[in-house]
Amino acid sequence: MKKILLPTDFSDNAQKAIDYALYLFEKEACILYLMHAYYSAPSASGTKMTAKEDLKQLAQTLEANNNRKHRFETILETDSVINLVNRTVIDKGVDYVFMGTKGSSALREKFIGGNTTDVLKYLVACPVVTVPDGYDYDLPEEIVFATDFKHTFKNHELAPLITLAKLWNSKLNVVHIHTEKELNDDQKQNKELLKGLLKPIKSKFKEITLEDTIAGTLRNFERENPEIGMAALLRTKHGYFQKLLREPVVRNMAFQTEVPLLVLPMVG
Length: 268
Description:
Rossmann fold; 2 domains; ten-stranded mixed β-sheet; 9 helices; elongated
């Protein structure tokens, strides 16, 4: 049974991320944790009691959809989003976190500047799927996985990606962006290793030319291939994920990509 964490601030974009998770996992037995980290500030709307009632109402509404494979639990605490997400992932053994990329208007600046980006940067132990504002979700016919082949892949690192690809028989496009003249021996070895690990799913490997930025290059690749329904990156100490942070932003991908972004944790 999959365990999925769904942080919400009750905004439309948070609801979109919840709906997308339910849609993606509609065939799977899941426990879905609806989580709200209460943030007390003069600009915050409502009280903790209001938030508790809103969370209860949300769970009842989702349960009324009557997917018997899905069970909902609510989590409400006064804490930062990143702290509560981290603790819940560990305590509940969460398999995926789904988040929107924009929050409610009262907390919008703080949410964009902090919560989703913090989770992407600092949540080490769990895959995160961010769903862009305004995304009209559909099945991921194809998934693009960007890598520089500088990392020696482990099966556990790729397992969440393979699981998602298997859900809807998605094809995986493994994309290498040219930032060097040719692959060195280690990169070639890692590429062959990756091919072996991806045998359980359909995959193809592509080379694309670096444009202005890595984020921009990947966005353009998505636009040129409309069958792509998800992008994926592995959170490594070096590689595309860190380069996006230095561009500066994981924010460039998380808030401007036109499809959901899956960020995989690095094991070990």
